[in-house]
């Protein structure tokens, strides 16, 4: 497949995904205004002060990014992500190696996340922090595909989060 076809297919996929999300959110009848807010004065690569105190110098931040307008699917992604993390990583949460942070990107102080993580819809993003600086992140885009299968969704969150935590654990062993 040549480069043109790859770009065309990728563009079509993104357009269809976004269109499906917009229709799903607008037609759900369950739009609400979110009230959770995480203040942040961070620049790209810099961890917000609130997250640094929770995750410490080395750890993983599991962000759920949302907007003021939310549908049933949006709430489900947040709920499943939180549950998957809490049920699989209790020790890491207690120790501060892992933190779950919902963030409303429509709040002025959080708008930078849209560019930092190239967000175009509600998203789950893992951020690997070493020595107080983000060194790597991953947008878990498959959460929308797996939304209708709770077990696969949990497995996906678990596997991806474990991979990020393993990088912290390997660093400590060396």
Characterise this structure.
By secondary structure, the protein is α+β, with helices and mostly antiparallel strands. Helices cover 48% and strands 17% of the residues. The chain has one domain (3-173): Glutaredoxin (3-Layer(aba) Sandwich). It is built from 6 helices and 4 strands.
CA-based shape: globular
Strand order of the largest sheet: 2-1-3-4
* β-strand amount: 15-25%
Average pLDDT number: 78
CATH-wise, what's the superfamily?
Answer: Glutaredoxin
- Give the CATH class: Alpha Beta
- What CATH architecture label applies? 3-Layer(aba) Sandwich
Please bin the fraction of helical residues. 40-55%
Work out the radius of gyration.
Answer: 17 Å
Order of helices and strands: HHEHHEHEEH
Distance, first to last CA: 42 Å
Structural class call reads: alpha+beta
Tell me the domain tally.
1
What's the total count of β strands?
Answer: 4
Largest sheet: 4 strands, mixed
The CATH topology comes to Glutaredoxin
Poorly predicted ranges (pLDDT <50, ≥5 residues)? 26-47, 49-53
Enumerate how many helices there are, as a single number: 6
Give the key terms.
four-stranded mixed β-sheet, 4 strands, Glutaredoxin, globular, about 170 residues
Question: Secondary-structure blueprint of this entry?
Answer:
Blueprint (H helix, E strand, L loop, with lengths): L2 H25 L21 H7 L3 E8 L5 H17 L1 H6 L2 E7 L7 H5 L6 E8 L2 E7 L10 H24 L1
Helix pairs in contact: 3-6
